[in-house]
Amino acid sequence: MTQNKHKVLVCDDEENVRQLLRETLIAAGYDCLEASSAKEALEHLETDLPDLVLLDLVLTDRSGLELLRDIKNHYQDVPVIIVSRVDDLNTAIRCIRLGAYDYTVKPINPDEVLNCIERALQTKRLQLELQGYQRHLEEKVEEQAEEIRDTFLGAISALSFALEAKDTYTAGHSRRVADIAMAIGKKHGLSNDELEDLRWGSLLHDMAKIAVDDKILHKDGKLTPKEYRHVMTHPIVGACLAGSMIKKKRILDIIEHHHEHYDGHGLEQKLVGEQIPLLARIVAIADAYDAMISDRPYRSALTREEALTQIRLGSGSQFDPLIAKIFLGLSEFDIVPERKIILAADDDESIRLLVRSILGNDFLVIEAADGQQAIEVAQNEKPDLILMDIMMPGKDGLQAMYEIKNNQQTKEIPIVMLTGINQYLNEKFASTMGATKYITKPFMPQELHETVCRLIEDLQKASL
Q1: C-alpha to C-alpha distance for 46 and 33, rounded to whole angstroms
Q2: In this predicted model, what pLDDT tens digit does every residue of 117-174 receive, in sequence order?
Q3: In terms of DSSP bridges, do strands 52-55 and 80-84 run parallel, antiparallel, or are they unpaired?
């Protein structure tokens, strides 16, 4: 049941289909509009704009594809889900390229349609928020342009990382792909501008998996051909979503083409060899290697040597042979550079997730859920910096900081108090006890990121 009533327009020339969808939508808490023709659908769009459209491809007065094109030209923020009897991959891809959010085949599965609608509306909310954020940032003065771009892309990558962090199997995947891709790019001799685009494209390459059914992503077994095709729409969907927010073609190329095979034998692939953008060919290897050495619901991780063997076997077919040669020449340290360790100590799991999403692209984030655990983790793991909440069960953050600062092994670790208690005396007391900085919740992600980066940089300078 949706919490806020959304309006869904059902456009289908079959009365029984409209009736089934109407009953399904109303039972799920949606308002339902109906149209039996393209003309009726356009009238609804002009006078009573829906939040989403369910569209058949065969209508009495016009082609559904023509109507889809009109909707995306004039109402681009309204997601369209195709509901059709045409079970053809080329048709589905054509619809997605024209702007459809998803494509589902009749006979209608009500649960599948409802899940698809919920994902589409969630993606729409995200897209509108990011577009609003972008418009706000673009109002700033020209000399801030570089900072604005990094902040905007950082917000998207933080969201992507937060979504990954919810899944044991994919947590940190985009960050690791970025590390590997950057190592290849540097060996290849890419320019600084190309490397920057490679980094962002790697972090965002799987952003559209938010639109993929969780049941399929987490399936404990081999995917059916239909399920595989559904998953493999994410590069096209991602490029369409990102295209309204990101103007750098190299970043969009990575998102759209990172699953294409060098020999042209990928799923419904049109580009071959060096027609595939260079940065996408780099990410293809980085993405495949990290997937191989990671556990998945349907298999255990390969060893490093087993994964390298698969890359060798795929050189010239799935992978660009030159890029594969560069990758195979990298050391394990080149691929996985040493990362500074940040301990996030907070009893609120959502705050720990937020910290991981903000800092996880640049640091290894470890966690503690209470004061005593923070003391133990600090002593065992020797993090480079600690983010400490005050109000935690058992020993609170101030008690934990006192013990950490009075332990010879941990006393030099800087501690940033990250708390919802906005009181001058607490801040002064924490500073007296040895806190390096005091940040009050709710905090701006950019503030936390900049604070941690600056403190780590100061530590590195002090150690020289």
Answers
A1: 13
A2: 998 888 888 777 776 666 666 665 455 555 555 555 566 656 565 555 555 545 567 7
A3: parallel
Measure the N-to-C terminal CA separation of the chain; round to a whole number of Å: 59
- Residue 58 φ then ψ, to 5°: -110, 110
Q: What is the CATH number of the domain that holds 169?
A: 1.10.3210.10
Measure the CA–CA gap between 294 and 278, rounded to whole angstroms: 25
Please say whether the beta carbons of 184 and 327 come within 8 A: yes
Q: Is residue 129 part of a domain?
A: no
Task: Identify whether residues 273 and 187 lie together within a single domain.
Answer: yes
Instruction: Return d(Cα 277, Cα 274) in angstroms, integer.
Output: 7
For residues 16 and 448, give the distance between their C-alpha atoms in angstroms, rounded to a whole number. 55
Sort residue 419 into left (φ over 0), alpha (ψ -120 to 50) or beta: beta
pLDDT < 70 regions, the chain? 1-4, 131-172, 210-214, 217-218, 244-245, 297-298, 336-337, 361, 422-427, 429-430, 463-464
Dist. CA 115–CA 118, nearest whole Å: 5
- The number of folded domains in the chain is 3
Residues 392 and 439 in one domain: yes
Rounded Cα distance, 375 and 406, in Å: 11
Q: What is the pLDDT of residue 136?
A: 67
> What's the pTM value of the predicted model, to 2 decimals?
0.53
Same domain? 254 vs 302 = yes
Q: Residues near 447 by Cβ (< 8 Å), separated by ≥ 6?
A: 439
* Residue numbers of the domain that contains 118: 7-123
CA torsion through residues 73, 74, 77, 79, sign: negative
Residue 171 located in a structural domain:
yes
The residue among 355, 375, 339 whose CA lies nearest residue 418 is: 355
> Rounded to the nearest 10 degrees, what angle do helices 145-165 and 445-463 cross at?
100
The sign of the torsion formed by the CA atoms of 121, 126, 129, 132 equals negative
Cα atoms in the Cβ-side hemisphere of radius 13 Å centred on 134:
15
The answer to whether the beta carbons of residues 304 and 293 sit under 8 Å apart is yes
DSSP E strands in 253-383: the ranges are 341-345, 364-368
Are both 376 and 242 inside the same structural domain?
Answer: no
